[in-house]
What we know:
The chain is an alpha/beta fold. Helices cover 43% and strands 14% of the residues. The protein has helices at residues 4-11, 16-26, 43-55, 74-77, 95-105, 144-149, 167-183, 193-207, 211-222, and strands at residues 33-38, 60-64, 85-89, 109-113, 120-121, 131-135, 152-155. A seven-stranded parallel beta sheet has the order 3-2-1-6-4-7-5, with helices on both faces. Helix 3 (43-55) links the parallel strand 1 and strand 2.
Amino acid sequence: MIDKKLLTYFENYLTEKRKTTFKKVLDNRTRHFTLVLEDIYQPHNSSAVYRTCDIFGIQDLHIIENRYINRVSKYVAKGSQKWITSHRYKNDGNNTKICLDRLKVKGYQIIATTPHTDSCLLQNFDVNKKTAFIFGSEAEGVSDIVKDNADGFLKIPMVGFTESLNISAAAAIILQHVTTKLRSSNSIWKLNNSEKEIIYFEWIKKTIKNVDKIEAHYHQELNKPKDF
């Protein structure tokens, strides 16, 4: 639950145009699809995926860090990381399994993006199912743990000599296709009002300079003894 009075207080620091933009973008956000990056070690790749998620309205990005620390390049991400909800899995243990288990509990089917022999072609993919798309490391692709726990495999049709795409390019192609089909489907894909409000509040806090001082002042004024 958020403090709605504090939210209203913060809104005074935003222009009407900014608030309208936030609400317009939120109306096109979805958690019907989410992306998972497993051990991506090149910052420009993960940074480009942040931008892709923002562009196509994907709110959540899950980052698995078994071997490599995920870093974001501000020159590539262009600030898009501020508007995406990141979930990082970097504790000791099997971070990949922890991530996949949490997603399954939330109702996601696990789809590994790989040129696997049993892969579904992108154009045949059923967008009505709540899905987490998994992208593996640049060199090896998705891990055996992902393959063993996946509900299915997805590949982009290719007719050239090259057998794979750059991760950020593959993510962009897949998201453009599935989100376009999703928005014209009968699936309930939009965020609910509670989700929108929480994210709206987070975005406002990220936008206001010295927001911690402003919030402290708000609470100070709220708790100031009233004169009778």
